[in-house]
Amino acid sequence: MAVSGLGGVGKSALALHAAHRMRAGFPHGQLYADLRHPCGHPVDPATALGSFLRALGVADADIPAGTAERVFLFRARMAGRRMLVVLDNAADGDQVRPPCCPAPPPAPSSSPAAPSWPGCPGPGSSTSTSWRPTRRSPCSAG
To answer: What is the DSSP letter of 140?
Structure first.
């Protein structure tokens, strides 16, 4: 599922709330990455993958330098696991494409249903939700 919309309308809160409610369906755990640095710049996909690999028990010395190799290792570590992966604050599809596009069969994907993400080749379909507030926030101007 992809959630998109204007900044500050609660997309992250919605995604985390949904993830919390769905976590029972993912018995092998959850992974979360904020894909935006505190300074506002996008996080490199290789950096996010490195964090995921460390969370999956891979030692720093065993994490490959290249993004493609990290994707391969990530998919290998995710094989046979049902894990929920939340990628928050993605700037564009290039940030989520490496770890989340389904691998061609028989390689594993990070999603049990192997959905396609927007711009990713592969089986399945993507779900995109545009999130808009239904009422004004007390913090909004005007």
So the answer is: S
